[in-house]
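Exercise: predict the fold of this chain.
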Amino acid sequence: MPGGWPAATWPNGQTPTASALGAADVKAIRAAVWAALDGRRLLREELAEEIVKRVGPGPRERLLSGFAFFQSEVCQGPPQGTRVTFVRPDQWIEGWREVDEQEALRDVCRRYVRTYGPARPSDFREWFATQGFKPADARALFDSLEEGLEEVDVDGHHAFVLAGDTGFAEPQSSYCRNTTCTSWASASVSILFRRG
């Protein structure tokens, strides 16, 4: 079982019939998930029943509702017809290795900035789109990458690129004035009117 799992609470969320689970409950459920999937692939319902056998009926509704599987302890296995199965990533993904969560997040952020930069912490946070990742977390992440980032001005706003990645192509103001673009656009419009 991965050691990096936080012993957090599991608030009620969207399941009105389920009560909040404490840190000890969450830890027990995560251990039960890991044990139940050892060498197996299970449907959601099968996994829920295996967990209930190990920890009791308390989390059954949560497990069947699906958001137990957004905790990144499991990955999707091969489907059974139209139904999804779940497996342990350490047994399913060749070369699987545990990584430090913060280093992985920094790596994702560097890759994001390389691909979509110049970018601001708020841009990354919006793209990353996880409820628990707050604006302060995004700023702290960018601060932790300070030596690897360079601040640039984008139309009067501060943004970041990877250090040394500041060579930008000049915008081409006459983009669609060239013959190819004009010809393509004319042909497209012409085709649309002929079909109409």
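Check your answer against the key: Residues 101-162 form a domain with the Arc Repressor Mutant, subunit A fold (CATH 1.10.10.10).
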